[in-house]
Amino acid sequence: MAVAVRSLAALETALPDVDRVIVDLTARAYDGVAAIAVAHAAGRPVLAVGQHDDVALRRRALDAGADRVHPYRRLFDDGPRQVAAWLAPAPGVEASV
Fold this sequence. Notes:
Rossmann fold, 3-stranded parallel β-sheet, 3 strands, about 45% helix, about 15% strand, globular
């Protein structure tokens, strides 16, 4: 089940009930890099989405703990496959239900 949050406080509240986190790096309601750090510190895998030409922000997202940082265009063009690949369990790891 997806849970939408619009603040760092709401993210912190939701973290116990989610397995993974997707962060919009250019959101205005929260600091995307801070959201990644909070989710990463809680042990949640993080997929971030941002501008393709903002290399510095993408690097900060990876440094904060994002597993992957995709440009918006990639998710627009190939979102279902990209997200499915990120959600798939690692080879040799059984999926939990």
